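re: the backbone from monday

yeah here it is again, tokenized this time
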């Protein structure tokens, strides 16, 4: 979920979503463009969140690994390369079972990357929502 969405949701008192400036919330700043965290890589809403006091790069998360829970989507999975989790770090996969071939291949990529040693303690949680 994007920071902009969370920011807007926090303004609705019925949702009970913490403010994006809450001292317990850290915003992960992904590498973009040059891959070097350069100011020119971030535009629009990305720029707004890149400059916040509670926005951390992968290196800052790595230094504080035991103090943070990092939530990211599948397409941010490669950020773990820069975060360099300690061997045996816990990875919680929260998603439904793959329901097509593309998702099965994506799951295989996660499994293969986890096997490199940094994410040996992996927990899978399947969530189902019915309306």
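seq for it, each position gets an aa:
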């Amino acid at each position: 979920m994007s920071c902009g969405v969370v920011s807007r949701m926090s303004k609705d008192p019925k949702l009970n979503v913490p403010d994006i400036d809450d001292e317990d919330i850290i915003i992960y700043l992904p590498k973009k463009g040059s891959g070097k965290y350069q100011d020119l890589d971030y535009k629009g809403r990305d720029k707004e969140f890149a400059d916040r006091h509670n926005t951390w790069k992968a290196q800052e998360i790595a230094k504080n690994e035991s103090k943070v829970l990092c939530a990211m989507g599948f397409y941010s999975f490669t950020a773990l390369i820069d975060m360099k989790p300690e061997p045996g770090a816990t990875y919680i996969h929260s998603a439904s079972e793959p329901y097509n071939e593309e998702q099965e291949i994506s799951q295989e990529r996660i499994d293969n990357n986890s096997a490199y040693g940094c994410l040996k303690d992996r927990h899978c949680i399947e969530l189902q929502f019915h309306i």
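The mean pLDDT is 77. The first helix runs from residue 3 to 10.
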